[in-house]
Write a structure and sequence with these properties.
The complex is a heterodimer of chains A (114) and B (111).
Chain A: E1 4-7, E2 10-13, E3 18-25, E4 31-37, E5 44-50, E6 53-56, E7 64-70, E8 73-79, E9 87-94, E10 104-105, E11 109-113
Parallel strand pairs in A: 2-11
Antiparallel strand pairs in A: 1-3, 3-8, 4-5, 4-9, 5-6, 7-8, 9-10, 9-11
Chain B: E1 4-7, E2 10-14, E3 19-25, E4 32-38, E5 44-51, E6 56-59, E7 62-67, E8 72-77, E9 86-93, E10 99-101, E11 105-110
Parallel strand pairs in B: 2-11
Antiparallel strand pairs in B: 1-3, 3-8, 4-5, 4-9, 6-7, 7-8, 9-10, 9-11
The chains are: A mainly beta (114), B mainly beta (111).
Chain lengths: 114, 111
């Protein structure tokens, strides 16, 4: 596997379910990000991890819970979601935050909350 | 709070045409600006990154310019092809790789 991978690619869950999204990067980066892309809204940054420490959460509701066990893996734990949480969730990675480094994105997980 | 706007929201051109996509931002204190391409239902592919000290970057048929003082960037695509059809996103970095995205320009290049 190369680049940034995300699993699952598609997920349908009920409002009472608990599920997790997984992201893995194979680029040797040490910063990882979760973004949300809703229909008709710009991409929104949700969480940033730098060297496995969370540095930004951007006022995301507590029903979204990130976890970064090491610099290659990032999870987003989901519980008691709302239908408006249906969106494409994108993971990205880069070198330690700094102005010279591009972010590389995974293919995303399409989440539908019923 | 940084706001990023992209105009037009959608654009349809015949194959071979040269075109310009626009991006504007409200806070000029940026570290860099990045242009991405997104195909339907897919993730983002980085096209060009312009540092705040640079005026432009080129990659193949793509040229991106940055005028930080006026809060503007343009992405120029030369000799457009049907394979260029996608949504193009610009994003600005105000705080060390924490990106603020525009709403995107959906481009259709007709054969």
């Amino acid at each position: 596997e190369t680049g940034v991978t995300q699993t699952p690619r598609h997920l349908v869950m009920g409002m009472t379910n608990k599920k997790s999204l997984k992201c893995e990067q194979h680029l040797g980066h040490n910063a990882m990000y979760w973004y949300k892309q809703s229909a008709k809204k710009p991409l929104e940054l949700m969480f940033v991890y730098s060297l496995e420490e969370r540095v930004e959460n951007n006022s995301v509701p507590s029903r979204f819970s990130p976890e970064c066990p090491n610099s290659s893996h990032l999870f987003l734990h989901l519980h008691t979601l709302q239908p408006e949480d249906s969106a494409l969730y994108l993971c990205a990675s880069s070198q330690v935050p700094g102005s010279h480094y591009e972010q590389y994105f995974g293919p995303g997980t399409r989440l539908t909350v019923t | 709070k940084q706001e990023v706007t992209q105009i037009p929201a959608a654009l349809s051109v015949p194959e071979g045409e040269n075109l310009v996509l626009n991006c504007s931002f409200t806070d000029s204190a940026i570290y860099n600006l990045q242009w991405f391409r997104q195909d339907p239902g897919k993730g983002l592919t980085s096209l060009l990154l312009i540092q705040s000290s640079q005026r432009e970057q080129t990659s193949g048929r793509l040229n991106a310019s940055l005028d930080k003082s006026s809060g503007r960037s343009t992405l120029y695509i030369a000799a457009s092809q049907p394979g260029d059809s996608a949504t193009y996103l610009c994003a600005v970095d105000n705080a060390g790789n924490m990106l603020t995205f525009g709403g995107g320009t959906r481009l259709m290049v007709k054969p």
